[in-house]
């Protein structure tokens, strides 16, 4: 049982590292300083991510409600969504414009699929199952 848990912990850490590395150029281009990236696995299947305090902590869903890993493009889009919340806490027009810009830039810059070193983002090995949020958290059902 512990071996199975360790294996999933490694998979999660690898996925988070991979995603962080792929979005590094977007983060650096904007001069954003991010804190820790976590997996979130809430009971609410519509909750795909959380952004706490403008990127101090970002939580993204890696697995579906039936515990299968989501496709990497979907995980990356969740991350891009959360990155847009670094500048815009609500889902208003400015947020949507930035999210679309990040999607475009990511697609334009990631055609070769190469991973890059992540931009100082700490990758957590903790699984987060949120029970509530506070005023500094943007809850993001996409």
UniProtKB/TrEMBL annotation:
It comes from Aspergillus awamori (Black koji mold). Residues 1-142 form the WLM domain. The keyword Nuclease does not apply. GO terms for molecular function: metallopeptidase activity. GO terms for cellular component: nucleus. Keywords: Hydrolase, Metalloprotease, Protease. InterPro entries: WLM_dom, WSS1-like_metalloprotease. This is DNA-dependent metalloprotease WSS1. GO terms for biological process: DNA repair; proteolysis. The keyword Transmembrane helix does not apply. The lineage of its organism: Eukaryota, Fungi, Dikarya, Ascomycota, Pezizomycotina. It comes from the Eukaryota.
